[in-house]
Each structure stands twice: as structure tokens, then as C-alpha cells.
Design brief:
The complex is a heterodimer of chains A (170) and B (325). With 170 residues, chain A is an alpha/beta fold. Chain A is built from 4 helices and 7 strands, in the order αβαβαβαββββ. Chain B has 2 domains: 141 residues, Rossmann fold (3-Layer(aba) Sandwich); 148 residues, Aspartate/ornithine carbamoyltransferase (Rossmann fold, 3-Layer(aba) Sandwich). In chain B, strand 6, helix 7 and strand 7 form a beta-alpha-beta unit. In chain B, helix 1 crosses helix 13 and helix 2 packs across helix 13. The chains are: A alpha/beta (170), B alpha/beta (325).
């Protein structure tokens, strides 16, 4: 059963403000933005337009770096990752739609580090919820939500972009 | 197949466990192999040509028949998946084949390997091995006797799919030594399973099996009629042993009757693609200008071979038979 959508534009604006603030506080100059397929790539595109970054936008498909190959096998529709820049010693702003267990971010970090040695990696997410299974934290957040263990929140899109909460019966 | 009619290649959930032959695999599975290969094709273009999917897995290339190129592509595919690879070349002993084959397998299994890639001169050898391996071990055939070369057929189908809209309207001609070709057998099976409109074989009578009518193909002995309006031309390698066996008078005669020249290519559809499993014999099966020409996708087949092998190895490695009960 799904519940009504949340206001994406408002949350994306909040995330953009959070990123702005963090960049000032941490003295981040000219970072590289990388969105994680699929939801994170949509969010990154929105942010990229709001913040006016100069460098090209990167996208990452983490399917080959997931930790659940033994359970679910390989996804037959992996999109190519595209990092049209050198990551060496650069500040990276990694963007995803929902931060939940943290495993996706772990996989993304592994993949980014295969491309080179970044200077710093910051994490920005549209939605942060509880349920971390690895020690990962977001630096910038659009909004926090409290959900029960049998609930999930998902971003669908690309047109229109919608956030929906799902409740599973057990 | 086992006597029970079960397909030994599939586990209890219908997932690929061994990959030995196109026989018994449905269109949905063949399509899934190609879709998975499409994902892996992108890995070759990344600066780091490696993904960690099979890290810690051990894959043994057990080649009873010599082959540098097929073994090399399996090795590259396995390494791009981060697996560890062991290459073993073995001469088969004529007197105690069955026994020593199983002993070899058992010895390797005792080293906790996860997968065997087998090329063997005897048709059926990979099936025999698959029937005797431990539940967590998968077998991939790199070609057995005259029977089957399933990864070659799949990379050919994958190549065709990348150039043509669909299989349903496709006319394909396979040219050459069909009789001795495990590649042709697998290709014909795959094309028919994927629903190709027409599958033709073009060859001299001495190089055709007598039961072609059961293979699901139309037979031609003349290039000009056989190639008319085809969308895909697959040239097979002419093995020199065939001349010694008196099946053909000479390479020159073969080329004059069945070589793919620029002239003959004109009989095909203007957008036809030219394929060859390699290695090519210039001036024997194919004119140099055609092999190097715009219609040729021969080099692309090689790259596609790596992606297909990555797909098949990954799918078999994930099989449910691995789960400890």
C-alpha cells in the first residue's frame, strides 16, 4: 500500500542549501558531482542545475560492486558508469536518493576508488532514514524521515519524479 | 540430458548451472545471456577493466584440445570478473580415457575449484564431466568434438543482435564445412530457438551431414543462390585436413566455388553483415577485401566473445545448486 508523495522540489532545494552550507564550512572548491544510478543520478541532475557546477556530471552504476551477488545474482541491465574526469586528489560529492542501509554507498566508494584516489568524498542524499547496516553517514541531507522496519521509501521517475512510501505486510 | 529428460544444464529453479550446449535452452534464457553480456560489454571501455563479482572464485581452463585464442578469451573474461584462473593443457590418453578424465577432475576438485571450462576432442566429454562434479561446481564447454561450441554460438547471436533489429525477419547463411563443425551445429540451434526466419547452409555435398533436413535448415550448393537477400553471412573455417581426407580437391577449388568474394557479397542484402569465428584463411574462405571491408564484423566478434563468456560464467556461478542446504 502506498502513501501520498512528498514535495520533491522543496526537498531538493533543502538539499541544495545543505550542500552550499557544507561547501562553505568544509572549504570545498570545484568538486566533482557523481550520481548513483538510478535515483541518485536523477537527484544529481537536479542539484547540478541548481548549484551551477562547472565540471561535467558523473554517474555510477554500482551493480557489479554490490555485496549480494550470492543471493540475487547479476542484474542483466546494468548501465555503464561514466566518470568523465580524473578523480585523483579531487573533492567528490557523491549523491544518492535514499540513504538506508548504507551498502549502496559502500559499493559506490569501492567503485570510485578503483578509478583513482580521491582527495575527499562527501555524501549528499535527498532522503535520510534510519536502518544503517554499515557505518556510513551523510554530510548533506534534503530531509530525514522516520520509517518502520516494514516500510520502504522509493524515488520513481524520471518524469515525473515522485517519492512514495511503501508498507509491507510482514 | 539425463535419462530422466531433465536438462543437466539447469538447476532446480531453472537458472543456468552448466553451459554445455544450446540444446534444451529456451529463447528466454538465451536472451538473458545476451542481455547480461550487454552489461559486461561496457567493462572493456572502462579504465579499470575489472569488476569484483567473482573475486575469490577459482576457474580452471581444462583444455584437452589445443586452442590459444579460445583459452585466452576465457582467461581474460574470468580475470575481468576478478576470478583466479588456472590453465591446464592435457593430452588425453587413448587407453584409459574415462578413468583418467574423472581422476583429473577429482584431483582438481580437491583443490576447491568453482568452475571448469572444458575443451575436449570427444563429443559429450563436458556432459560426462558435468554429471560427475560436486554440486557447487559448474562446467562450461569451450567446444567438444563435432558436437557443440555454445559460447561461440552465443557470441555470434549477440553480434547479430547488435546489428539487426530482430531475429524474426532474419535470413542467415552459414557457409563451409558444416559436417565437421561444432560451431555450425550450435549456431543453427541458437538461430532456430531465437526464431530466425531462414537458416541456410551453403556447402559442397562432401561437407554436409546427410541429415540436414532434421537440423532445421535449407541446403544450398551454390553461393549465388544461397546468398540471395541474406542479412547475415557466417563463414566457417576450412580445415586443411579436409583436403587430405579427399573431401575437397584443393583450397583453390574450394575458394572458386565457395569463397566469399566481393562479387558474391553483392547477392546478399546491401546491409548484410559478414561473420567468421576465426582464425580466417584469407583467399580460402574469404577474400581479403571482404574480411577487412565495411560489412565485416569479425573483429567485433572477438570483443563480444569476452562479454558473452563473462555473462555465462557469472550466471553459472550464481546457480542455486551452490547454496548449501
Amino acid at each position: 500500500m502506498t502513501e501520498p508523495t512528498m514535495d520533491i522540489i522543496k526537498i531538493a532545494d533543502q538539499l541544495a542549501q545543505s550542500v552550499d552550507l557544507m561547501m562553505n564550512q568544509r572549504q570545498v572548491v570545484n568538486p566533482l558531482m557523481i550520481g548513483i544510478h538510478t535515483g541518485g543520478a536523477w537527484v544529481a541532475k537536479m542539484l547540478y542545475e541548481r548549484l551551477g557546477f562547472v565540471e561535467p556530471l558523473g554517474t555510477l552504476d554500482i551493480s557489479f560492486y554490490r555485496d549480494d551477488f550470492s543471493q540475487i545474482g547479476v542484474n542483466p541491465e546494468v548501465k555503464p558508469s561514466s566518470l568523465p574526469f580524473e578523480v585523483e586528489e579531487r573533492d567528490i560529492l557523491l549523491i544518492d536518493d535514499v540513504l538506508y542501509t548504507g551498502r549502496t554507498i559502500r559499493a559506490a566508494l569501492n567503485e570510485i576508488f578503483d578509478y583513482g584516489r580521491p582527495g575527499r568524498v562527501f555524501l549528499g542524499v535527498l532522503i535520510e532514514r534510519d536502518g544503517r547496516q554499515v557505518p556510513v553517514q551523510a554530510d548533506c541531507v534534503g530531509t530525514r524521515v522516520d520509517l518502520k522496519a516494514n516500510q520502504r521509501i522509493k524515488l520513481s521517475g524520471p518524469e515525473p519524479l515522485e517519492l512514495r512510501t511503501y508498507t509491507f505486510d510482514n | 540430458m539425463t535419462e530422466l529428460g531433465q536438462n543437466i544444464q539447469l538447476d532446480t529453479t531453472g537458472q543456468l548451472r552448466h553451459f554445455l550446449s544450446i540444446e534444451g535452452l529456451d529463447k528466454e534464457l538465451l536472451t538473458r545471456i545476451m542481455d547480461t553480456a550487454e552489461s559486461f560489454a561496457g567493462v572493456a571501455n572502462q579504465p579499470v577493466k575489472k569488476v569484483p563479482l567473482l573475486r575469490g572464485k577459482t576457474i580452471v581452463n581444462l583444455f584437452f584440445e589445443n586452442s590459444t585464442r579460445t583459452r585466452a578469451t576465457f582467461e581474460i573474461a574470468a580475470k575481468r570478473l576478478s576470478a583466479d584462473v588456472l590453465n591446464i593443457n592435457i593430452e588425453t590418453s587413448a587407453t584409459s580415457k574415462g578413468e583418467s578424465l574423472l581422476d583429473t577432475i577429482r584431483n582438481l576438485e580437491a583443490m576447491y575449484v568453482d568452475m571448469f571450462v572444458i575443451r575436449h576432442g570427444d563429443s559429450g566429454a563436458p556432459f560426462f564431466i558435468a554429471q560427475h562434479v560436486a554440486p557447487h561446481v559448474s562446467v562450461i564447454s569451450a567446444g567438444d568434438g563435432r558436437h557443440s561450441h555454445p559460447t561461440q554460438a552465443m557470441l555470434d547471436m549477440f553480434t547479430i543482435r547488435r546489428h539487426k533489429e530482430s531475429f524474426e525477419s532474419l535470413r542467415v547463411a552459414i557457409v563451409g564445412d558444416i559436417l565437421h563443425s561444432r560451431v555450425a551445429r550450435s549456431q543453427i540451434l541458437a538461430l532456430n530457438t531465437l526464431g530466425a526466419a531462414e537458416v541456410r547452409v551453403i556447402a559442397p555435398r562432401t561437407l554436409l551431414p546427410t541429415n540436414t533436413e532434421f537440423l532445421g535448415v535449407e541446403v544450398f550448393h551454390c553461393m549465388e543462390t544461397g546468398l540471395k537477400d541474406v542479412d547475415v553471412i557466417i563463414m566457417l573455417r576450412l580445415q586443411k585436413e579436409r583436403m587430405r581426407g579427399a573431401l575437397l580437391p584443393s583450397e583453390h577449388e574450394y575458394y572458386s566455388g565457395f569463397g566469399l568474394t566481393e562479387q558474391r557479397l553483392k547477392f546478399a542484402h546491401p546491409d548484410a553483415i559478414v561473420m567468421h569465428p576465426g582464425p580466417i584463411n584469407r583467399g580460402v574462405e574469404i577474400e581479403s577485401r571482404v574480411a577487412d571491408g565495411n560489412a565485416s564484423v569479425i573483429l567485433e566478434q572477438v570483443s563480444n566473445g569476452i562479454a558473452i563468456r563473462m555473462a555465462v560464467m557469472t550466471m553459472a556461478m550464481h546457480s542455486k545448486s551452490r547454496e548449501l542446504s
